[in-house]
Amino acid sequence: MPYLVDGHNLIPKLPGMHLSDLDDENQLIELLGEFCRIHRKQVEVYFDNSPPGGIRARSYGAVLARFIRQGTPADVAIKSKLIKLGRVARNWTVVSSDQAVSNAARAAHARSLSSEAFALTLLQLSESDKQRDIGENEDAQVNSTDIDSWLELFGENKSQV
Fold first, then answer.
1. Of 18, 65, 101, 120, whose CB count within 10 A is highest?
2. Does residue 160 form part of some domain?
3. What is the CATH number of the domain that holds 145?
């Protein structure tokens, strides 16, 4: 099930991310990319207030970022996408805490998920990555007793090493 994400609605729900950050959109895109990789999902994330003449859409693997020009809220673009999807919209999940966007999702028979709930999913993903990294580092530690045992087992003596 692919996702439509209201990017600027989600960013403030994630600890350490702020709309005032220069790279807030890139941080979110990276996090969504990790989500897509692990869960084998596709995401379209919408960001409003894009400067005139900028990129309108850019693909980052399974994440398609849509930059909506100033004067048009991302909410309108998401609603428009739901209309274009028609009956296929029921296969999508819309992530936003904006009531109008959630209502549009339900009207299109798409699944609606609050930004807060999706942020928890992303945070759990981030935590499991940290735990996996810690576990891998612990496994990679080798002590001198292990090395001596391996050298003895494989017929090497310390003077040759």
1. 101
2. no
3. 3.40.50
CA 78 to each of CA 16, 20, 93, 130, 146: distance values in angstroms, whole numbers, following the listed order: 26, 23, 11, 33, 58
9-45: pLDDT as tens digits: 999 999 999 999 999 999 999 999 999 999 999 999 9
Q: How many structural domains is the chain composed of?
A: 1
Cα 155 to chain centroid, rounded? 49
- 101, amino acid identity: V
Strand ranges, E, within the chain: 3-6, 43-50, 57-60, 63-69, 93-95, 111-113
Do residues 4 and 93 touch, judged by C-beta distance below 8 A?
yes
| Pairing relationship of beta strands 111-113 and 63-69 according to DSSP bridges | unpaired
Any idea what DSSP says for residue 51? P
